[in-house]
Amino acid sequence: MRNILVTGGIGYIGSHTTIELLEKDYNVVILDNLSNSDIRIKDRIEILSGKKIKFYEGDILDNSILNKIFEGENIDTVIHFAAYKSVGDSVKMPLEYYNNNINGTVNLLRAMKRYDVKNIIFSSSATVYGEAKVMPVSEKTPLMTPTNPYGKTKSMMEEILTDVYKSDNSWNVVLLRYFNPVGAHKSGLIGEMPNGIPNNLMPYISKVAAGELEYISVFGDDYKTIDGTGVRDYIHVVDLASGHVKALNKIEEKCGLKIYNLGTGNGYSVLQVIKAFEKAANKKINYKIVERRSGDIGTCYADPKLAKEELGWEAKYEIDKMCEDFWRWQCTGLKSLIEDEVLV
Ligand code: NAD
Ligand code: UFG
């Protein structure tokens, strides 16, 4: 099984995963509508890997392009990243989120069924655990309905994929629950490109370090954590990417339905991340403690044992490396995209 369709492959996690796949000699076909990504990332993927990828600019909601890909590319497996992912936007625009994420996934699955392609790896999220009572969260931790439409789309898509598998056991479905992806490729050429002012912690800190924003607001210091600030399981995006290659190996064994947490098992507080980033960037990062952000939970980190046992995968990179790589991307790859400089 060598021909992989990567939906959303120009995006943050998709681009890093594509590089890992090309390194392992998979043939990659990308379908992306570029709604949250930049086509210049495609050239950078090709430069970094020294290989060509087949790229279709288009939408998972568009049957004509899906038919064309499945008819022409001999796809074995789909890695499905394409989705909208902003928690805040999803509250303001629930219909756009349900349409893109849910209808898009259903449309993709129907196309896969038409062409008898029954292997899929799906990008899920730790958000499906909600505010779990016991840490770390394992795959057996009871699920809770997320508080926002984005999170709900992830829970619903997990259910849809599970029902598809139940209806026909010849499908192989791997649901990967990501914790908090951060960092960037070590080259600094590809990384996360948030639209406008970032919502997530590390992209925001990075902009403060770059002098683009004055300070970071720390949302609450009265959680039951080491220093009162929120604790999360940050995972290097390259570790996350390699988890997808391991999941593909599992699919090749005809695994049926499988669910894995992809996290490090370690939690870091907001203040600890700020400190690690100060070290990486060699800059002081100003912060202010403000009110808790509505919908936030205090602590969330993974029990990653199952992925280790069944996939032979575990995260390699520590928080310092995540910050160093993010900062390199901020100063080189991202800067050159914004300023439209030719870097490579
Ligand atoms: P991203 O926005 O960088 O990448 C998503 C890509 O999908 C973009 O290139 C976008 O242009 C494309 N896309 C969106 N809708 C599309 C459509 N209808 N048709 C074709 N292409 C479309 O996001 P990311 O951070 O790489 O996330 C990838 C996946 O992982 C998403 O499903 C996201 O929900 C999930 N996830 C992300 C995080 C995170 O913190 N980054 C955490 C958990 C889960
Ligand atoms: N935080 C701040 N200030 C900021 C941004 C974040 O203090 O400006 C804090 C948050 O309160 C939290 C921590 O930093 O304690 C991490 O926040 P992020 O927004 O980076 O990440 P979340 O854990 O809130 O959410 C992320 C993704 C969601 C996903 C969830 C679970 O953004 O899409 O992980 O996987 F659902």
UniProtKB/TrEMBL annotation:
<keyword id="KW-0413">Isomerase</keyword>
<dbReference type="GO" id="GO:0005829">
    <property type="term" value="C:cytosol"/>
</dbReference>
<dbReference type="InterPro" id="IPR005886">
    <property type="entry name" value="UDP_G4E"/>
</dbReference>
<dbReference type="InterPro" id="IPR036291">
    <property type="entry name" value="NAD(P)-bd_dom_sf"/>
</dbReference>
<protein>
    <recommendedName>
        <fullName>UDP-glucose 4-epimerase</fullName>
        <ecNumber>5.1.3.2</ecNumber>
    </recommendedName>
</protein>
<dbReference type="GO" id="GO:0006012">
    <property type="term" value="P:galactose metabolic process"/>
</dbReference>
<dbReference type="Pfam" id="PF16363">
    <property type="entry name" value="GDP_Man_Dehyd"/>
</dbReference>
<feature type="domain" description="NAD(P)-binding">
    <location>
        <begin position="5"/>
        <end position="325"/>
    </location>
</feature>
<dbReference type="InterPro" id="IPR016040">
    <property type="entry name" value="NAD(P)-bd_dom"/>
</dbReference>
<comment type="subunit">
    <text>Homodimer.</text>
</comment>
<comment type="pathway">
    <text>Carbohydrate metabolism; galactose metabolism.</text>
</comment>
<keyword id="KW-0520">NAD</keyword>
<dbReference type="GO" id="GO:0003978">
    <property type="term" value="F:UDP-glucose 4-epimerase activity"/>
</dbReference>
<keyword id="KW-0119">Carbohydrate metabolism</keyword>
<comment type="similarity">
    <text>Belongs to the NAD(P)-dependent epimerase/dehydratase family.</text>
</comment>
